[in-house]
Amino acid sequence: MRHVLSLFDLSSSEIRRVLEIASDLKQQYAEGIRPASLERQVLGLLFEKPSMRTRVSFETLIRHAGGSSLFLGSDVGWGTREPIQDFIPIMTSYLDCLVIRANRHEDVVAATEYSRCPIINGLTDYCHPCQALADILTIEELLGSLENAKVTYVGDANNVAFSLALACQQLDVPMTIAAPERYQFNDDTLAQLNSVGEGNGLQQTSDLNAAVDGANIIYTDVWTSMGQEAESAQRVADLADYQVNRELMARAAVGARFLHCLPARRGEEVTGEVIDSRASAVIQQAENRLHAQKGLVVWLLTEAGGDP
Ligand code: CP
Ligand code: NVA
Q: What pTM, to 2 d.p., does this model score?
């Protein structure tokens, strides 16, 4: 049984296949066609943190495909009411697929040991693979192909940055992270990311202007992720020079597009002027969560074979 806890769980060709299914289903959806390829399948959503996009896109996509969903919040008692060796095998014996959004990535890894159905990571402190699939689908749509994409991620090298970097590595898209040194990936994580793919490798720099030079995709995320609220004041102070604003966008390639996984904090990591500008593709990007994850679930439940 296959699980998707990070993009390490998919090979490059499997990522391409998921995106191909996603694009096809997106096209069909636009034509009013919703193939019932997951008829009567039940998708569970076990969420420890708030969500709008991830929850609603998963709940919607399974209905489009003929199935249904169950949202499972804190009242089901994951980690509090009974031990994992009882909780996970029982819950997953009721379901065809389980999406988990968890505070600690290791809890999702532990869940796979007891699971009776495929598990998808809907965001942890470590990574956000579903977001990266939608990001890549969006970049491909915006630029026509990934061939000439040059991605610069500005700000905290967090869970979203990790999955985006791994997707870029797997698909040979050059990517640079611009952040103060202590907000960049550490050497071990960098080595892990750079062990993948045949591209130029992930670059990291604290030189923001150099990082955006020639980039046609400028991406950022919040400086304070869920669970880091106590560090917020420090983070805002440390990252203040790494805001994506009009001046920064003007230093990128002509026609560069802006992406953000959302939710955004206007006035912190990005100005309202940029996120609400014509360069911004954040609404298209968020809509693509639906299509990319539909591609992932359809692939996982109908096509996925053995190891990546
Ligand atoms: N980008 C994203 O995952 O949004 P939600 O937290 O609203 O699900
Ligand atoms: N880095 C953010 C992403 C939210 C979708 C967080 O983890 O809170």
A: 0.98
